[in-house]
Amino acid sequence: MIAPAFGAERKRELLQFSKSASVRFKSLELLNLSLTHRSAANELLLRSSRSQGIPVDRLNNERLEFLGDAILGAITAALLYRRFPEKAEGELAKIKSVVVSEEILSGLALELCLDMFLILGKGEEQTGGRAKKAILADALEALIGALYLDSGFKAAEDFVLPRIDREIDRVLEKRVHQDYKSLLQELSQRLYKAYPVYRLVKRTGPEHERLFWMEVLINGKSYGPCTGRNKKAAEQEAARLAWEALNV
What we know:
It is a single chain. By secondary structure, the protein is mainly alpha-helical. It folds into two domains: 8-176, Ribonuclease iii, N-terminal Endonuclease Domain, Chain A (Orthogonal Bundle), CATH 1.10.1520.10; 180-246, 2-Layer Sandwich (Double Stranded RNA Binding Domain). The protein has helices at 8-21, 28-34, 38-47, 62-83, 89-99, 102-111, 122-126, 133-151, 153-176, 180-192, 231-246, and strands at 197-204, 211-218, 221-228. It has a three-stranded antiparallel beta sheet, with helices on one face. Strand 2 and strand 3 (221-228) form a beta hairpin. The mean pLDDT is 88.
C-alpha cells in the first residue's frame, strides 16, 4: 500500500475522526488514504519529485472505494435477506438500490462529519467539493473498504449494519407514505409525454365491505387490477405497481 504522507496535525485529526465515528484503525495511513480525493493526489504528484513514477490511483481513495462498494453491497444484501424472508428478489434489489444510493450514502457521510476530514485539491475545494454528494458517498465507501483491510469483515460489518439497518427502515417508511399517483404521473410524462389513465375494472362484495378493482393504462399497457376499499386506495395500489415496474 502507498499512501500520502501526513504529519502530527493530520494524525490528531484522524484520531479525532476515529473517536467521533466510533471506529478504530490500526493503520492511520489507511484511514488517511480513504479520505484522500483524486484531486489532492494529482496535486501531490505535481508537487513532489519523490512521487514520480507512482500511479495516481495509489495516492487516492478510488481503489478503496471500489472495495468498499462491494463490502457495503454484501453486508446490505445479507441484511435484507435476513430481515425480509417473505420478499422476492426483485423487491429486495429495489430496496437495496435505494439504501446504497448516492443520496443516502452522502447523508451518512455528513452525519459522520466526513466532509470536515476530506483531503481535496485546491480546485475541488474552491468549487465546493466538500458538499458534493458523489465525493461524500465515494469517501464513505472508501472508508468501509479501508476498515475491512485494516480490521477485517466483522469490523466493517459492525460499522455498516446499524447505519444501514436504520436507513432501510426510513426507506420503507417513506415508501408507505408516498403518493404513487403523483410519482407515476411524473414518470409517465417523462417517459411517454402522456398521463396515466385509471379505469374501474369491477366492484365486488356487499355495500359495507365493497372492494374496488382498478387498473392503470400507460403507453398502451395495463397495470393491475389492484384492489382497495375505495377507488382512491385502489388507484394508489395500481399506481405503485406501475411505478415499480417502470422505475427499474
